[in-house]
Specification:
234 residues; alpha+beta; outer membrane lipoprotein receptor (LolB), chain A; 12-stranded mixed β-sheet; 19% helix; Outer membrane lipoprotein-sorting protein; lipoprotein; signal
Length: 234
């Protein structure tokens, strides 16, 4: 299951990144084409009281902290758990082979903690070779979205919450990401990522609670035995 976790995360990150969602510096955005359509949509929303898709997602970046349950599905494989996020700190709790596994990134190091064994393994970014094994949180999907790639499809209730459905797709690619974004928080509650082969990877975020989290949320119990992976690997 832990290997599945890293596999699913890697696939989602690759698809999300391949769409060029990040509006980074460098090349200037070309006018016309899809960009004109989106800009026209933004102009149309002015004076109507309707938030633009970009401003909707920007609300998610204002959230100080949050927690939720998650379910990730890829084909016939499913993984579920809970997560807590605040700033750069992230905590996940899931099960592997019948045991609870807690994964924590405290802003500087990554820990895999097994409560039943009262033991944790410590990793750094160098140890993980850039892959921390973290599941994408709802906040990750709201960062630096390229407005020219967004098409708004509809507004609908998803599990009792009013959401706006956004499709993010590059013009010259079959990869796409479809998101159901809550109107109140600006956070996605469902993300469907489709790759060029037609494979669909679904992330669902349930029971979302927003607000600052206690400081000890991202701390290991004081009596946990911590082993450094670099020492284990010699």
């Amino acid at each position: 299951m832990y290997k599945l976790k890293i596999l699913l995360v890697t696939v989602l990150v690759v698809i999300y990144s391949s769409l060029g969602l990040a509006g980074c510096g460098g090349e200037q955005k070309e006018s016309g084409g899809d960009g004109q359509a989106v800009n026209a949509e933004h102009e149309a929303t002015r004076g109507t009281g309707k938030e633009s898709a970009v401003n909707l997602l920007a609300k998610g970046q204002q959230i100080e902290g949050m927690s939720c349950d998650y379910v990730i599905t890829a084909g016939d494989m499913t993984m579920e758990g809970k997560m807590w996020v605040q700033g750069e700190k992230v905590k996940h709790e899931t099960k592997a082979e019948g045991q609870n596994i807690i994964m924590i990134f405290d802003g500087s190091a990554f820990y895999t903690y097994t409560p039943a064994e009262n033991m944790a393994i410590k990793y750094t970014n160098e140890d993980m070779q850039g892959d921390s094994g973290e599941v994408e949180s709802p906040l990750d999907y709201t960062e630096d979205v390229n407005e020219e790639l967004i098409t708004e499809l509809e507004t609908e209730n998803y599990e009792g919450v009013k959401c706006r459905v956004l499709l993010i797709k590059a013009k010259d690619s079959q990869d796409e990401v479809k998101m159901w974004v809550r109107e109140d928080y600006g956070l996605p509650v469902r993300v469907e990522a489709t790759d060029t082969d037609g494979n669909i990877y679904v992330s669902e975020f349930k029971n979302i609670k927003v607000g600052a989290l206690p400081a000890n949320t991202f701390e290991l119990p004081a009596d946990v035995q911590v082993q450094d992976i670099s020492e284990i690997m010699g």
